[in-house]
Each structure stands twice: as structure tokens, then as C-alpha cells.
């Protein structure tokens, strides 16, 4: 059985990650590929509970290392319960955020040393890394303006300042430069239709070479 492909989608708040992930999911599915869609933090019953703790804005005093460890605790469960079994069965996994978000948010955003994140990555994931990472990139002001239009209360991350998201965007772009074979950077300041088309072109090539 050929192992499935592990595809992740990343970006700052308001770049249209969730909407575009859905369309990538349908695009892959329409090519008769069995694909599992999931997200981080979360993706399992336990992981979704950890997500609740991480996003709850009332948890104001979460230490940076606690935040980092909770991300990896949720990830460990997600890998064991969802990601690895699916990939081993030949299914593709499409994941809304993964460890690059930890490098960007806890590393770039919170200032945790990336070496420390790399140690946890090695411990929790072993050799598991995404095959393809789709980075939706847009200026922070564009993302935050779109995110502000969403209904509902802002979560613990969404309440951060613009400078926090500037550091995250820079960290993502640095990761993309570090891993040019794995990363595909999409200009998310374009219209939704243009972004969708760009993603379909990328996915057509990925499917062709798989
Ligand atoms: P979401 O907005 O994509 O649903 O993700 C929830 C938040 O969690 C988002 O603000 C980014 C944050 N996050 C991290 O800080 N580190 C991580 O490793 C992951 C997966 C998400």
C-alpha cells in the first residue's frame, strides 16, 4: 500500500484558510483520492478539548512554554489517532495548520527558540513531516481587517497586536524560503476566485506527480 500524501495549509488570521481548505479538499476528492480533512490544534476529541483551553481568551496567564507543550500534546494525539493511521492506509491527509504554525506563532510570535521547537518536533513526530505546505500569504492589515468582520468573540490569539502577526508572517515566509521544495506560497490578497484557481493549479501538479 502506497503511503498517502500529507498536505498542510498555513497562514495568519483572515487569509481565508478554512474556506480555501474546503475547496482543496473537494478538488482532491474529485480526483478519486481518499482524503481526510482535519485541523490543529484539534482533530481528535482530546485535541479539541486542548484547543478549547488554548483559544479561550479567559485563560490570560498561559505561560509560553505551557502553550507550546499544549500544542504538541494535542499534536501527539492527532498523529497517533488520525494522521498516521490515515497515511498508512494510503489516504491523503489535508490538515489546517501543523508544526509550521508552532514555529510561526510560538517561535516567531512568542519568541521561543526554534531549537526547542525542533526538539519537540523530533520527539513527537519522529520522521513525520508534511509533503506539501500551502501558505496563504497576505499583508497583516488585510488579514486582520477580514478577521475583524467575522462574527463571534475574538479568541486568545486573535486578541494579539498587529506586531505579533507581523512576526508570524515573517516567520512563515522564512520557513517557505528554508523549505522551497515543500512550500507553495499563494498570494491571498487576491480575490477568492483567483486564490482558488492558484490552489487548483498547484494541486493539479501535486496530483499528477503523486
Ligand atoms: P485557527 O485559527 O487556524 O483555527 O487556529 C487556531 C489558533 O491556534 C491560531 O490563532 C493559530 C494558533 N496555533 C498556534 O499558535 N500554534 C500551533 O501550533 C497551531 C497549530 C495553531
Provide an overview of this structure:
The protein has eight helices and five strands; from the N terminus they run E-H-E-H-H-E-H-H-E-H-H-E-H. It is α/β, with parallel strands linked by helices. Strands 2-3-1-4-5 form a five-stranded parallel sheet, sandwiched between helices. The longest helix has 25 residues, at 64-88. The radius of gyration is 16 Å and the shape is globular. The chain binds thymidine-5'-phosphate.
Topology:
Layout: E1 6-10, H1 17-29, E2 35-39, H2 45-55, H3 64-88, E3 92-96, H4 99-109, H5 114-125, E4 132-137, H6 140-148, H7 162-178, E5 183-187, H8 192-209
Parallel strand pairs: 1-3, 1-4, 2-3, 4-5
Helix pairs in contact: 1-8, 2-3, 3-5, 4-7
Thymidine-5'-phosphate binds at residues 17, 40-41, 71, 96-97, 101-102, 105-106, 157.
Beta strand count: 5
Q: Which regions are unreliable across 5 or more consecutive residues at pLDDT < 50?
A: none
Instruction: Please state the CA-atom Rg, rounded to the nearest Å.
Output: 16 Å
- Give the distinct bound molecules: thymidine-5'-phosphate
The secondary-structure element order is EHEHHEHHEHHEH
Q: What portion of residues belong to β-strands? A: 5-15%
Q: Identify the overall geometry.
A: globular
The major beta sheet can be summarized as:
5 strands, parallel
Q: Roughly what is the average pLDDT, rounded to an integer?
A: 97
Please provide a brief summary of the model.
This protein is of the alpha/beta class and 210 residues long. Helices cover 55% and strands 12% of the residues. It has 8 helices and 5 strands.
Amino acid at each position: 500500500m502506497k503511503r498517502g500524501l500529507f498536505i498542510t495549509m498555513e497562514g495568519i488570521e483572515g487569509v481565508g484558510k478554512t474556506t480555501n481548505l474546503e475547496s482543496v479538499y473537494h478538488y482532491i476528492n474529485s480526483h478519486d483520492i481518499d482524503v481526510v480533512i482535519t485541523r490543529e490544534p484539534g482533530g481528535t476529541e482530546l485535541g479539541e478539548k486542548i484547543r478549547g483551553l488554548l483559544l479561550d481568551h479567559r485563560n490570560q496567564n498561559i505561560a509560553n512554554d505551557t502553550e507550546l507543550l499544549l500544542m504538541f500534546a494535542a499534536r501527539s494525539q492527532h498523529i497517533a489517532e488520525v494522521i498516521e493511521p490515515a497515511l498508512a492506509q494510503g489516504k491523503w491527509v489535508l490538515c489546517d495548520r501543523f508544526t509550521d504554525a508552532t514555529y510561526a506563532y510560538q517561535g516567531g510570535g512568542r519568541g521561543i527558540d526554534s531549537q526547542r521547537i525542533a526538539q519537540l518536533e523530533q520527539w513527537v513526530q519522529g520522521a513525520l513531516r508534511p509533503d506539501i505546505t500551502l501558505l496563504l500569504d497576505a499583508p497583516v492589515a488585510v488579514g486582520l481587517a477580514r478577521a475583524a468582520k467575522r462574527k463571534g468573540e475574538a479568541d486568545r490569539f486573535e486578541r494579539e497586536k498587529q506586531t505579533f502577526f507581523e512576526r508570524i508572517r515573517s516567520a512563515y515566509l522564512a520557513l517557505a524560503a528554508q523549505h522551497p521544495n515543500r512550500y507553495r506560497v499563494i498570494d491571498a490578497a487576491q480575490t477568492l476566485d483567483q486564490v482558488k484557481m492558484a490552489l487548483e493549479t498547484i494541486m493539479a501538479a501535486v496530483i499528477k506527480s503523486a
